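TASK: fixed-backbone design
INPUT:
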């Protein structure tokens, strides 16, 4: 029980973000994920194409 009481007491000291801060941080993270996903997609396609090209060159 002491652990639960201590945990609840500590939760009273937590400074929770406001709704506006949460929206702002969510938007920042969403933009980061989209940009990073596009980056991975582009470079994955480039490297896959290069590997297929090398495979075709050395196969012959």
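OUTPUT:
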């Amino acid at each position: 029980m002491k652990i639960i009481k201590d945990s609840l007491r500590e939760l009273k000291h937590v400074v929770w973000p406001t709704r506006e801060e949460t929206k702002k941080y969510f938007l920042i993270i969403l933009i980061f994920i989209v940009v990073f996903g596009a980056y991975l997609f582009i470079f994955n396609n480039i490297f896959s194409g290069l590997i297929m090209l090398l495979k075709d060159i050395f196969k012959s």
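COMMENT: The helical segments are 2-11, 19-59.
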